[in-house]
Design brief:
By secondary structure, this protein is mainly alpha-helical. The protein has 2 domains: 32 residues; 76 residues. Helix content is 83%, strand content 0%. It has 4 helices and no strands. The longest helix is centred in the last third of the chain and has 34 residues. The N and C termini lie far apart (60 Å). Keywords: Membrane, Transmembrane, Transmembrane helix.
């Protein structure tokens, strides 16, 4: 095992530690104010509902070239990927519209 592998594993560990800390510390801080925890929970529920709507409208079509090696894509996996893509598109559009509205309201003021 050379130094590249060691540094790669260290970076994986640091990214994992950063992800855990970035999730746990705000949750611990929000225990002081339960209303903020409720807003976070509602946001998560809204994103999950949006995903299930996106999942239900996505198709499970798989092209023949993706059925075999190296992809081994199944219809369920194809529908899951389609659901994630549609969710990403919707959230991106919402973010862009929010940015435009915010900038326009700042310009008017």
């Amino acid at each position: 095992m050379d130094s590249y592998d060691i540094m790669l594993y260290v970076s994986y560990a640091l990214v994992g530690l950063g992800a855990v800390v970035s999730i746990l510390l705000p949750l611990l801080k929000s225990l002081d104010n339960p209303k903020s925890l409720m807003k976070t929970g509602l946001g998560i529920v809204a994103i999950v509902v949006l995903f299930f709507i996106s999942y239900s409208i996505s198709t499970n079509e798989v092209l023949p070239k993706f059925e075999g090696e190296p992809f081994n894509l199944t219809p369920q996996m194809s529908q899951m990927v389609g659901g994630f893509l549609i969710t990403t598109y919707i959230l991106t559009i919402i973010a862009i519209v929010g940015i435009v509205i915010t900038e326009l309201s700042k310009a008017v003021k």
